[in-house]
Amino acid sequence: MLRNKKIILGVCGGIAAYKAIELLRLLTKSGADVHVIMTRAAQEFVAPLTFQTLSSNPVHTELFNLIAEREIGHISLADRADLFIIAPATANIIGKIANGIADDMLTTTVMATKAPVLFAPAMNVNMFTNPIYQENEEKLRRLGYLFEAPVCGSLACGWQGEGKLAAPETIFEAALAALTEKDLAGRTILITAGPTREEIDPVRYISNHSSGKMGYALARTAHCRGAKVILISGPTSLIKPGGVDIIEVTSALEMQNAVMAHVSECHVVIKAAAVADYRPLTRNLTKIKKSADSATIEMIKNPDILAGLGALDNGLKPRPFLVGFAAETDALAENATKKLKEKNLDMIVANDVSQADAGFNVDTNRALLFFKDGSSTPCGLMSKDQLAGSILDHVVARLAQH
Ligand code: C5P
Q1: Is the pLDDT confidence value at 239 over 60?
Q2: Which of 28, 69, 253, 396 is at a distance of 20 to 30 A from 289, taking alpha carbons?
Q3: End of a domain among 143, 178, 213?
Q4: Do 46 and 65 sit in the same domain of this protein?
Q5: Which residue ranges have their beta carbon within 6 Å of ligand 1?
Q6: Is 12 a catalytic residue?
Q7: Closest CA to 28 of 10, 51, 46
Q8: 252: domain range?
Q9: Which atom of ligand 1 is closest in space to residue 192's alpha carbon?
Q10: Which of 178, 198, 231 is the endpoint of a domain?
């Protein structure tokens, strides 16, 4: 996702400096070429060698380094950067940059860069709420600097409150967003994800193997590309994507209610959820006791939420662009195109869930995309994040004529 991107990671002297190592790993794993600059205080917390080894690039610590300065180190780094991330960013660095002080390698390079700069502050709660700090942050925000706000929690200094560095995954998402073209700006996208659970009694339910990974990848990517995202999620254990409105539901009926409550505000609906086709006819109020050797549960059909949206096409108001998913174990193309027509969709993503590297619960997928106009495109084996990008590329291309 970050291939060919040059990122400068500025690390300041706070106890959260060790978390910058995890962030560096996420960035390099995504293909970014990361150059680390450490302040003098940062080196008291973590050794430069750690960052050097994990970034495969020399770590910059000194403004007046004779080797790097042959090409004026801070200027050439600043010029080549696609993005600047400062994590953890201390009250000190934010105060210096907000007031034009450039007295070390990090502040000088920030001052010289034209790349977007993303701060992830971390500090004591009283420092964070100090009006001097708040004014500095406000000034930088006004000037277009980006911030990934700290979270609440127990701080290393013993205090409880706001000031804890955002999770490395969250900072990574914000970095991706800062580098992504906003081709979905102004669009609202509703995405459903995960399984539904249909309760039999207070302790048992019927569900499926959906992990929610595909829907969450779509939600993250659409948010990065500037869309307002409403994610209606069945039960999953995934990290919630930042910047996305999440509505948590359990059953198919709850999912239907949530979808119908929001569909009128949406330009696109992507139904990646694996909705249970049937639910128990009745839900026992108490736990069903074990007695007979066999048991039967009478099931009733759930409403088909997507088909319901397809049927909204009454010619009065343009309905949202509808994208369905077809998880199949056989006759993939045939079953998918049948669903595309029957549910009156604009596009369907078909994947063969009988393969080990595609479909439920894995990080990769292999899909075939079918469109209303009869055309189709294969998407070979790729990560769910990459597939999310391809699906949204097609949505963007076709939304213009929708
Ligand atoms: O017909 P099938 O269930 O295989 O269709 C899958 C597509 O329909 C998915 O996009 C899924 O989210 C959606 N669906 C739905 N409501 C159901 C069942 C499936 O919206 N009750």
Answers
A1: yes
A2: 253
A3: 178
A4: yes
A5: 192, 252, 271, 273, 275, 277, 302, 304-306, 324-326, 339
A6: no
A7: 51
A8: 188-400
A9: 12
A10: 178
